[in-house]
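Our consortium's second objective concerns turning raw sequence data into structural hypotheses that experimental partners can test. To show how far this objective has progressed, the report includes one record in full. It was chosen at random from the queue rather than selected for favorable results. The single chain below, 163 residues long, was entered without modification.
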Amino acid sequence: MKKALFIGRFQPFHNAHLSDVKLALKECGNVIIAIGSSQESGTKDNPFSYEEREEMISSALKSNNIHDFNIVAVPDINDDKRWVGHVKNLAGIFDVVYTGNDFTEKLFKEQGIDVRKIELIPEINATEIRKRIIKGNDWKEIVPKEVSDYIDNINGTNRIKQI
């Protein structure tokens, strides 16, 4: 059974991420979701903690009857040459990496690892979601309901607006 690695910051987890996990599971029996910058929280680019992101992802996936996943924390080490090895040490064995990030794709390919480039969906990305929250625009339509409910429950919109 092949294992996929899907790496991102998930600030927050959104519908395109959910679609990407479903795609990975069509090709692999299990997906390891690596939450990057796991040590970061409370900043403009990383408002949510690792634990909050893990909860958002788990609840959204389980609600979609997806159970073949593991979540791991990947803190930053700020060393591009060692980063892939760092991820491998934390994530364990995987066969293919799914990413929409060009630099991540480059780093894994340089190590001879199979990479599937994810097609990004315009207007569905975490930066756009955070911008919509700050401006008071609708954002809930582009995240799973479990994620929007969770963000509401932790007063996440106000936290993002105050950063």
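The partners drew two points from this record. The first helix runs from residue 15 to 27. The chain has a mean pLDDT of 97. Both points have been shared with the crystallography group to help prioritize constructs.
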